[in-house]
C-alpha cells in the first residue's frame, strides 16, 4: 500500500471507530456533523495543561483580519498551487509516527471539524478576533500513531522570511489541546493567502508567531536541538521565547 493511503486508511478506521460510522459512509457524515472532537481534552485532563483560551461570538469578529509576517510565498510552486486552488497541496505527517504519510486538503476537510472564535495577539502590538475552522491536530496525531519517544511536534512552512525557513514547534500538551487545529477556513471562507493559505496552525493559548502559516508538514520529534537553529522556531532562533503563552 502507498504510504499516503495507509495514513488515510488509518483516519477512516479511526473516525469510524470513534463515531460508530461505517467505513463506507464516514466521509460525508463526519463532515456534516462539524462536531468538536474531544479526545484531546480527555488526554489533557489526564495531567496536562487544561486551560482553554477564551472563545468569542460572531458579533465580536474583527471586521478585517490583517496579515502579518509573510503575506504570501514567493515561489513558482506556490503560485502554481494557488492558481489551482491548492487542489494538490499536501500536508506531510512524519517523524516519530507509526503511519507516516500525507494528507490532501480534501482529506483534511473530511475529518471532524472544530470551529472556534478566538483572539490572535501579535507581539508587535495588535490583536484580531477571527473564526477558524479545521480538524484538531490531535485527530491527525492519533491516526498517525505518535510514538512514545516523541516530545514535540514541528510545523514546517512553505515560506521564507528574510531568507530563513519559517517553522514552529510545540510540546505534546499543546499538540493534543482541543483548541489546537489545522485551520483551512477563516470567517467561513477558504483561508486567504495573506493569512496562510491553504493551511495554518491555530494554537490558541500562545502568541501570534506560534501560529505557523503555509503549512507543508508536521513532524514528531524527540528533541528540537538538531532542527534549524535548535530553539524550536523561526523567531525563537532569533531570540523570542519558545513557550509564548498568553
Ligand atoms: N509561515 C509563517 N507563519 C507565520 C508568520 C510568517 O511570517 N510565516 N508570521 C507569524 C506572526 S508574527 C503572526 S502575528 C501571525 C500572523 O497571522 P496573520 O497573517 O493571519 O495575521 O502569523 C505567524 N505565522
Ligand atoms: Mo506576530
TrEMBL record:
InterPro entries in alphabetical order: OxRdtase_Mopterin-bd_dom (IPR000572), OxRdtase_Mopterin-bd_sf (IPR036374)
Cleaved signal peptide residues: none
UniProt xrefs under Pfam families: Oxidored_molyb
Positions of the Oxidoreductase molybdopterin-binding domain: 87-221
Protein name: Molybdopterin-binding protein
Organism: Aurantiacibacter zhengii
Amino acid at each position: 500500500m502507498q504510504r499516503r493511503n495507509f495514513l488515510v486508511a488509518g483516519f477512516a478506521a479511526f473516525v469510524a471507530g470513534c463515531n460508530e460510522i461505517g467505513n463506507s459512509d464516514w466521509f460525508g457524515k463526519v463532515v456534516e456533523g462539524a462536531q468538536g472532537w474531544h479526545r484531546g481534552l480527555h488526554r489533557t485532563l489526564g495531567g496536562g495543561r487544561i486551560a482553554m483560551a477564551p472563545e468569542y461570538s460572531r458579533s465580536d469578529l474583527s471586521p478585517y483580519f490583517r496579515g502579518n509576517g509573510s503575506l504570501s510565498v514567493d515561489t513558482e510552486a506556490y503560485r502554481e498551487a494557488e492558481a489551482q486552488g491548492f487542489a494538490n497541496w499536501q500536508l506531510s505527517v512524519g517523524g516519530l509516527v507509526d503511519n507516516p504519510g500525507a494528507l490532501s486538503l480534501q482529506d483534511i476537510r473530511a475529518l471532524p471539524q472544530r470551529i472556534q472564535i478566538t483572539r490572535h495577539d501579535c507581539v508587535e502590538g495588535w490583536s484580531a478576533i477571527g473564526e477558524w475552522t479545521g480538524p484538531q491536530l490531535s485527530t491527525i496525531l492519533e491516526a498517525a500513531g505518535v510514538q512514545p519517544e516523541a516530545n514535540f511536534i514541528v510545523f514546517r512552512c512553505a515560506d521564507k522570511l528574510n531568507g530563513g525557513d519559517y517553522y514552529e514547534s510545540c510540546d505534546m500538551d499543546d499538540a493534543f489541546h482541543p483548541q489546537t487545529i489545522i485551520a483551512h477556513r477563516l470567517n467561513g471562507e477558504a483561508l486567504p493567502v495573506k493569512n496562510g493559505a491553504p493551511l495554518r496552525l491555530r494554537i490558541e493559548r500562545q502568541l501570534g508567531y506560534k501560529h505557523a502559516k503555509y503549512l507543508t508538514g508536521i513532524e514528531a520529534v524527540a528533541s528540537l536541538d538538531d532542527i534549524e537553529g535548535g530553539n524550536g522556531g523561526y523567531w525563537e532562533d532569533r531570540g523570542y521565547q519558545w513557550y509564548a503563552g498568553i
